[in-house]
Amino acid sequence: MRQINSLSELSDNIDIFTGIDITGNFKKLFGNPVQMPGCLFMLCIRGNCSITLHMNSYKLQEGSLIVVFPNLFFQINEQSHDCRFIFISFTQKLMEDPSLFSKAIVHMPSIFEKPVIQLEPKIQRIFYDYFMVLIRISRDAPEMYSIEHIKMTYMQLIIGLGRAYKENDINPKKHHYNRNNEIVKDLMRFVIENYRQERNISFYADKMHLSPQHLSTTIKKVTGKTLTEIISTMVIKEAQAKLRSTELTIQEIAYSLNFPDISFFGKYFKRYTGMSPKQYRNME
Known about the structure:
Layout: E1 16-20, H1 26-29, E2 34-35, E3 38-46, E4 48-53, E5 56-61, E6 64-68, E7 73-79, E8 84-91, H2 92-95, H3 98-104, H4 108-113, E9 116-118, H5 121-140, H6 147-170, H7 179-194, H8 201-207, H9 212-223, H10 227-245, H11 250-256, H12 262-273, H13 277-282
Antiparallel strand pairs: 1-8, 2-7, 3-6, 3-8, 4-5, 4-7, 6-9
């Protein structure tokens, strides 16, 4: 089976990469803290290990599924000799596609809050079988991997995880999170509810009864991103999705995102994308 021999294999040249860690080389790849270049889904299928994901420690065993988002630091600290993973990875470029981002964002708070989830045996088998199908396609029929198929695969994983998290939340044996993780969880909920109207850090700090500095420092520490980056990413991705997939005028899109006028929206959009809304809409 295919395995990752170098993180360079997760470059933007390959939209999807699947395989089984058959020789335990994940410990070699992630023995030291590594900033993840893409989005990695790993299902532990045997053994156990301890990991650190962006300064938070977790224990993994058979049936543990971990999601490592781009730019987060990941390290495998200790690992049993028989520890093995089945995995699938996507490039950061693909997962930030505006049409995918706008659909996946509703599930992101749960995953940010709890990047490691212990799957029930029946759910574990479903994820394992799904990963294996993707591995077989990659090995035997790579021509089936159109970009639309890859996007659908990513969304199926995110939606499936969303349902798994929902079931897990019903379980009375709930995980107790530290205060920083609780802050991130609450922030993501507030941002998703308000980013179209509010982009001011003070607004979110007031909602959470925290100082802007404390909130900003905590978010950067846990997620690796600033609060401004998180908010602007959501705003820009929605704007891009509307520019490409709707007939709304640029002015209507600007108003839908609570910009005072089309000029202000244009400057904001260009600051983060390097082009005007009109240029983006007309781009091939």
